[in-house]
Specification:
The protein has about 450 residues and is an alpha/beta fold. It is built from 14 helices and 17 strands. The protein has 3 domains: about 150 residues, Ubiquitin-like (UB roll) (Roll), CATH 3.10.20; about 160 residues, NADH-ubiquinone oxidoreductase 51kDa subunit (Rossmann fold, 3-Layer(aba) Sandwich), CATH 3.40.50.11540; about 70 residues, no CATH class. Helix 4 packs across helix 7. Bound molecules: iron/sulfur cluster (2 copies).
C-alpha cells in the first residue's frame, strides 16, 4: 500500500461524525457576520465597502492588495454595521467587515452564471478561480490560482487531490466524497484542462473504504483520473508526504510541490473550483466538522463564512458542561480557541469540544534520549535537539538542525514518553526565526 517513511498512528476518532450527513446551518435574521480581510496566506485584503452600505450575497467586500492574496465575499445580504478588528482562529487580529444579515439572501448581479471551461483559456480559468476567492481549504489557505499556474519551467505530471483527511475526528472531506463525488471529479477536470499532460490522482487513506468506492465509481470511464489507496498514517495529508506516497518523488527542502512536478489540492478546494466554474459562485460557505466527546450533536455542518464558532455551536446543541477546551482544526495540528466569538474563515475545517479529562496536559519530564521522536518524525528531523535549541534560544543551532523544515505535525509530541511539548516549542521558534529574517531584510 502507498505510504511514506516514519509518521504515527493516533486513534482516528472519526466515528462521532463520519456517518452524519452534511446539514445546512443558516444564520438568523439580525445576526452579525464578520468577514476578516485575512483568511489566506499572503497580504490581507482591503475592504471595498463602508459602514452603512447595503451589500448583496456574493458581493466582493474585500479586494486583493498583492500578488499572494485572495478576495473576500459576503455570504449573506444586509447592512455593513462596522469595520473593525476581530480575532481569527489563528490567534491574530484582522480588520473585518461586519454585516447584519437581513435574511433575504439577495444575490449580487452575475451570481450563479455558469461558465463553460472547455471554451476558456488557461488564463481565464485561473482568473475565474482567483475571482471566486478560492484558497486551499485543507487548512493552509494558500491562494489556489497561484498554485495552479506554476512557472513555465515546472512541468506538472500529477494533480493530486488530497483526500487523506488524516487528522483524527475530521470528516468533512469524507462526507463530500460520499455525498458529492462527481463535483470533486469535475473540479479536478477543470484543473487538468490547465495541465493536459498531467494525471489526476485522488489519494484516500485505506480506513475510508466507502469513500474509495464512491470516488472510484465517479471516475469510471475517465482515462486521466484514478484513485490511489494510501496507508492510514499521520501525516499522510501533508503535501510532501502525499506526494511521496503517490509518486515516490521528494519535494526539496524549501521547495514547492511544483518542483517535483506536482500540484496538490484538497477535496473541498476541488469543490470550490467546481462551484466557481460550473455554478458561478464565489467561496461563501464551507463544511465544518463539530466533534469531540464534549459536542452534544457531533456532525458535519455547512456554514456561511463569517459566522462565529459560538453561533454554530448554539445552533447544533452546544457542548456539555464538562467541556474544557475548544480546538479549531484537528487535535494534532489545530489551535485552541479562547473565545467563541472567533470567526469561522475559509480554512476552518472543524471545531472540537474536548472534555476536562481529554484536555489535561500531562506534566513534561526531562528528555531521556529514547529517540522515539526522531524515529517518528516524518521530516527526518531531530525534534529533541530542536526542542533544546528552541528552549535555550539557540537560533543558529535550530537552523543547523533544519528546524525550518518542520511541518508542525505534532507527531514528535504525540510519541514522546516524557510528554515534552516538542512541536509547540518548535513552532514558537519558527515564528522567532521568521521575525529575525524579516528584520534582516
Ligand atoms: S519536528 Fe516537526 S515535522 Fe518532525 S515530528 Fe515534530 S512537528 Fe512533525
Ligand atoms: S521522544 Fe521525548 S524523551 Fe525521547 S528523545 Fe525525544 S524528546 Fe527525548
Amino acid at each position: 500500500m502507498l505510504t511514506f517513511k516514519r509518521g504515527v498512528h493516533p486513534p482516528d476518532e472519526k466515528s462521532f461524525s463520519a456517518e452524519k450527513e452534511v446539514v445546512m446551518i443558516q444564520p438568523e435574521v439580525g445576526e452579525e457576520l464578520c468577514f476578516p480581510m485575512s483568511q489566506h496566506i499572503g497580504a490581507p485584503c482591503k475592504p471595498t465597502v463602508a459602514k452603512g452600505d447595503y451589500v448583496k450575497m456574493g458581493q466582493k467586500i474585500g479586494e486583493t492588495t498583492g500578488f499572494v492574496c485572495s478576495p473576500i465575499f459576503a455570504s449573506v445580504s444586509g447592512t455593513v454595521k462596522d469595520i473593525r478588528p476581530v480575532l481569527t482562529p489563528g490567534g491574530a487580529m484582522s480588520q473585518a467587515v461586519v454585516i447584519e444579515n437581513d435574511g433575504k439572501m439577495e444575490p449580487v448581479e452575475g451570481l450563479n452564471v455558469p461558465k463553460d471551461y472547455t471554451k476558456m483559456t488557461n488564463e481565464e480559468i485561473c482568473d475565474a478561480i482567483k475571482e471566486a476567492g478560492v484558497v486551499g481549504l485543507g487548512g493552509a489557505g494558500f491562494p489556489t490560482h497561484i498554485k495552479l499556474a506554476p512557472p513555465p519551467d515546472k512541468k506538472i505530471d500529477y494533480i493530486i487531490v488530497n483526500a487523506a483527511e488524516c487528522e483524527p475526528y475530521l470528516t468533512t472531506d469524507y462526507r463530500i466524497m460520499l455525498e458529492e463525488p462527481e463535483r470533486v471529479v469535475r473540479g479536478l477536470q477543470v484543473v487538468l484542462k490547465l495541465h493536459p499532460e498531467a494525471k489526476g490522482v485522488i489519494g484516500i487513506e485505506h480506513n475510508k473504504p466507502k469513500a474509495i468506492e464512491s470516488m472510484t465509481k465517479a471516475c469510471e470511464g475517465i482515462d486521466n483520473i484514478s484513485v490511489a489507496t494510501l496507508r492510514t498514517k499521520f501525516p499522510q495529508g501533508s503535501e510532501k508526504h502525499i506526494i511521496y506516497s503517490i509518486t515516490k518523488r521528494e519535494v526539496p527542502s524549501g521547495g514547492l510541490p511544483a518542483d517535483s512536478g506536482c500540484i496538490v489540492d484538497n477535496v473541498d478546494t476541488m469543490v470550490a473550483i467546481e462551484r466557481a466554474i460550473f455554478r458561478g459562485r464565489p467561496l461563501m460557505r464551507r463544511i465544518v466538522t463539530v466533534s469531540g466527546r464534549g459536542a452534544v450533536n457531533p456532525g458535519n455542518y455547512k456554514v456561511r463564512l463569517g459566522m462565529t464558532y459560538g453561533m454554530l455551536l448554539d445552533k447544533v446543541g452546544g457542548f456539555t458542561e464538562d467541556t474544557a477546551k475548544i480546538i479549531s482544526g484537528g487535535p494534532m495540528m489545530g489551535i485552541a480557541i479562547h473565545s467563541l466569538d472567533t470567526v469561522m474563515t475559509k480554512t476552518s475545517s472543524s471545531i472540537l469540544c474536548f472534555t476536562e479529562a481529554e484536555s489535561q496536559l500531562p506534566e513534561e519530564r526531562n528528555c531521556f534520549r529514547c529517540g522515539k521522536c526522531v524515529s517518528h518524525c516524518p521530516m527526518g528531523l531531530m525534534p529533541n535537539e530542536l526542542n533544546k535549541a528552541a528552549i535555550y534560544g539557540d537560533h543558529a543551532g535550530f537552523i543547523e538542525f533544519n528546524g525550518m523544515d518542520c511541518i508542525e505535525c505534532g507527531s514528535c509530541s504525540f510519541e514522546c514518553p516524557a510528554k515534552r511539548q516538542l512541536a509547540q516549542s518548535i513552532r514558537a521558534e519558527k515564528k522567532i526565526q521568521m521575525a529575525l529574517k524579516a528584520k534582516q531584510n
